[in-house]
Amino acid sequence: MTGVTKEILQHMTNMVQDLKQRGILKSPNIKRAFLSIPRHLFINRLPPLFLGNRTGWTPIDPFNMPSKCLEKIYCADIGIQLKPPPPASSSAPAIMALMLEAADLTAGLRVLEIGTGSGYNTSLIMHIIGDQNLVYTVENQRSIMQEARENLQRVSLQDANVIYADGGYGYKAGAPYDRIIATASIYDIPVSWYEQLAEGGSIIAPVWMSPGWMPIVRLVKNQGKLTGSIVDGASFMAMQGDFGYDEFRHIIDTSVDKKIKDLLETSPVKKNIQLPIHIEQGYNEFAHFMDFNAFVHMVYPNARGLRYIAKRKIAWLSLWDEDLYSLCALWVPDWKIEVYGNDKMYYQLLKLIDQWEKLGFPEVSKYNISVSIQTEYLKKKKGNIFAQFRSWNMWEFSLTI
After folding, report:
1. Domain contains 78
2. Which of 89, 90, 91, 326 is catalytic?
3. What's the average model confidence in pLDDT over 35-43?
């Protein structure tokens, strides 16, 4: 293929080997796609600080890239911002591989991709499916859509179905789809995606659940519901357009909420307390906290993130009582607890820790998910089923124990 030298082929091979050794890349068809499609041909400019300097956005010729650029472009864990805001990016290859594996793609499936970006992920999907006419990709930024078309032409995919539209509405003309893959995070599953998904088909998408918790989910359409599981956690840019969401909707901002600000300006009744979670030997402490953080945001309605603007402090997890007589915050990055007002919420936190421990310290991958489309709010929990109503659907999480 034009633009692939021995050096570039070695970079591609090294990246694939890295993904295989880490257990992310498993399927031969996905491996072949990564070895066949050069990522650097989808990069037309470099973001500030990409090479460690403080220059602005730098146009670059994909066919004449210096080695130091290629090393970073073919690093499996590096995502690349494509342009100044409004944002668009090329996800890290490790995340692409993870989601493509979860999609279980095979030749002949009909696929809708939400968020074209550079077109690199689109090209991987087309290579796996084997027919570019079966793959549709929707991008809501016209300039990015046009660049993606040009990028795809570089790898001989000039007939790709690249559509300029709001991805939240899907793309009805190509439906029904066997797979819908979202490359931007959502707050809820758009009803259009459900309607355009074939029975037995699946949606793979990152879902913004709470501060610090954005699981990639795999949901299968089955008799009026979407059911599935959590693939892994990740970080994605939020979907734009009519189905975009406020990333701070579950975050208290002291510049807006004066009552919270006033409470935080009192002297803490408890401070510098280590989060009392038992860490199993050999278990990653941060991962353990993220599992607990996800659990709390699922089961406790007054769990929120917190931004204390005056002191430049952030908490991914805070609890408070409705009368604002007590607030308990776990600040990052030192992961220490402070309690304000009275200590009621501190003891509530201890109860949640006890509940989580009795369930066996469940990791986020242990939850099954059921999404009821356009349903009524379910007010009661049933056993180990934790339910929450999001924008228009009911999400239920149940543990595999």
Report:
1. yes
2. 91
3. 96
- Answer whether 364's CB lies under 8 Å from 234's CB: no
Give me the pLDDT at residue 287, please.
77
DSSP string, 90-134: E--HHHHHHHHHHHT--TT--EEEE--TTSHHHHHHHHHHS-GGG
Write down the pLDDT at residue 302. Answer: 77
Domain match, 310 and 207 both: no
Going by C-beta distance under 8 Å and a sequence separation of 6 or more, which residues neighbour residue 180? 111, 112, 113, 114, 170, 193, 196, 197, 201, 202, 203, 204, 205
The residue with greater pLDDT, 87 or 73, is 73
Q: Which of 130-139, 329-338, 368-377 has the highest mean pLDDT?
A: 130-139
Identify whether 400 is part of a domain.
no
Cis link prior to 86 (omega < 30° from 0)? yes
Please give the share of the chain, as a percent, with pLDDT higher than 70: 89
For residue 389, which of 373, 378, 397 has the smallest C-alpha distance? 378
Residue 50 sits in the same domain as residue 187 = yes
pTM check: above 0.85: yes
Contacts with 245 (C-beta within 8 Å, 6 or more apart), sequence order: 186, 187, 208, 238, 239, 391
Is residue 388 exposed (0-12), middle (13-18) or buried (19+ Cβ within 10 Å)?
middle
Residue of 285 and 89 predicted with greater confidence: 89
Q: What is the DSSP letter of 300?
A: -
Q: How confident is the model at residue 84 (pLDDT cuts 50, 70, 90)?
A: confident
Residues 193 and 277 occupy one common structural domain: no
Q: Is 36 among the catalytic positions?
A: no
Which of 212, 216, 184 shows the shortest CA–CA distance to 91? Answer: 184
- CB count, 10 Å around CB of 366? 17
Q: What is the CATH number of the domain that holds 170?
A: 3.40.50.150
Q: Which residues pair with 218 in a beta bridge?
A: 204, 229
3-state class (DSSP) for residue 329 = strand
pLDDT attached to residue 277: 76
